[in-house]
Amino acid sequence: MRIDFFDSSADEFETVKAIRTCVFTNEQGADAKGEFDQYDSTSLFALLYDGNEPVGTARIAKTAAGFKIGRIAILKKCRGKGFGAEIVKAVTEKAFEMGADKVLVDAQNYAVPFYEKLGFKVIGTEIMDRGLAHIPMCMDKGEHYGKEEK
Question: Whole-prediction pTM value?
């Protein structure tokens, strides 16, 4: 497994778009019009590879509220192998390296326990994004660094 980082001008962004369309639009029924937004042009993207095959993606966006990870998608055939946790840890770490004092994520409702295991805390009530229900969550830098791996 490896994770590469790049911006939207890289050729790999086409692969990011394909994975996101497959997972969010085709599989989960997210609103296709909202899938690619104003943050895509300024975000840092991660592409996770299993061998030479790209199987997951995520992005780090700098928003008015701070650094926010999101659009985290793992292809269905590759779920249950720990790839989701690996890419979330990688983009969270990268956001802290980029200067974040906290990292935000809007977790789909079913994924809240997954993010809690990784150290995120619920900070708000349900919101809708692309027709999918999400819960705002946050991890503070101090809680991330020095934390023992479990």
Answer: 0.92
